[in-house]
Design a protein that fits this description.
Elements (H helix, E strand, L loop, with lengths): L1 E19 L5 E21 L4 E5 L11 H12 L5 E7 L10 H16 L6 H11 L3 H6 L2 E5 L4 E5 L6 E6 L6 H9 L8 H9 L3 H7 L1 E2 L2 H7 L2 H12 L3 E4 L6 E5 L2 H12 L4 E6 L8 E2 L2
Parallel strand pairs: 1-8, 3-4
Antiparallel strand pairs: 1-2, 1-12, 2-4, 2-5, 5-6, 7-10, 7-11, 9-10
The protein binds adenosine-5'-triphosphate.
The site of adenosine-5'-triphosphate (ATP) has 21 residues, from α1 and α2.
């Protein structure tokens, strides 16, 4: 038997770091939303007891460093499963880009194995496994729009955003999330107004959402990747209504409600950067699971 899951990326609309905790993690407050750019995760039963991972791109690990592998191992141990699984990941989400591609693959694997092995896991049980893998995996279990607190694993659901286009521009370099947080520790921080973003979402006020975009890590990553600042300037000139770097970067996204402006942004930025995508927000009623 085989099951398929969509593993959509996220963007951060607001990301604040409150400080470093005693356990070494950073305490965060961030508003995230799922976008319609997704990897495809396929899980197939294996007769022998092993976990095999295959990825469509060469620079993603296929061993126990892959978050999907870790998800499968945790589920096998928790439910004493002595069967094997082959996990095939078709990557569409740029890697190490601030879009949580690896985390979403892990969340999709949890949902897939719940179906493949008919485990009847509740959402809370899936979240429990997710939290053991990484800070963004819990959010990716359900997706949608949410405030994440703690080290990112405590999820408070928010209403969906008003519909808009998201134009993503990924500079040619990748950054390490761990390094960006380390650098953040040694720089004076600018804190975005996370509550203003929550308020704008509650009021479904698109202009206020664009005005409230903010990411405390942006200035840190920008020092390493000056191209971010140039991309932002270019997107502003073309007419994006809101512009921000996602997560620890370096992907920059622009929001617009107008299809014509999305087209202008897409065409304008394509001549400027090689990885450019225009996608919709993930619709709240779009099921993440697909049966075949
Ligand atoms: P975040 O926004 O959650 O910080 P990111 O988008 O910056 O994540 P990922 O694409 O998740 O970064 O990749 C980060 C690292 O995780 C990669 O360098 C890669 O080695 C490792 N990794 C493990 N599993 C995966 C996976 N399934 N897909 C991509 N990368 C993975």
């Amino acid at each position: 038997m085989r099951v398929f899951e969509k593993a959509p990326a996220k963007i951060n609309l607001s990301l604040d770091v409150l400080g470093k905790r005693n356990d070494g993690y950073h305490e965060v407050r961030m508003v995230m939303t799922t976008i319609d750019l997704a990897d495809r995760v396929e899980c197939e039963s294996l007769p022998e007891d092993r976990i095999a991972v295959h990825s469509s791109v060469p620079y993603v690990p296929e061993d126990d460093k892959n978050f999907a592998w870790q998800a499968a191992k945790l589920i096998k141990d928790k439910y004493s499963i002595h069967r094997g699984v082959e996990i095939m990941i078709k990557k569409q989400i740029p890697v190490a880009a601030g879009l949580a591609g690896g985390s979403s693959d892990a969340a999709a694997t949890i949902r897939a194995l719940n179906r493949l092995w008919k485990l009847g896991m509740t959402c809370e049980e899936m979240l429990e496994v997710a939290r053991k893998i990484g800070s963004d995996v819990a959010f990716c279990i359900k997706g949608g729009t949410a405030l994440a607190t703690g080290r990112g694993e405590k999820i408070h659901e928010l209403p969906p955003l008003p519909p808009c286009w998201v134009v993503l521009v990924k500079p040619g370099v990748s950054v390490s999330t761990a390094q960006i947080y380390k650098d953040w520790d040694h720089q004076p921080a600018v804190h975005p107004d996370v509550d203003a973003m929550i308020d704008a979402i509650m009021r479904r006020d698109f202009s206020a959402i664009c005005r409230s975009l903010g990411n405390t890590l942006e200035a840190v990553t920008m020092k390493k990747v000056p191209e971010i600042s140039r991309i932002k300037g270019h997107m502003r000139q073309i007419g994006a209504e809101g512009i921000l770097m996602s997560g620890s970067g370096p992907t920059v996204f622009g929001l617009t409600r107008h299809e014509s402006r999305m087209q202008r942004l897409l065409n304008g930025m394509k001549g400027y950067c090689s990885q450019v995508f225009a996608v919709r927000l993930y619709k709240p009623n779009d099921a993440l699971s697909k049966y075949e």
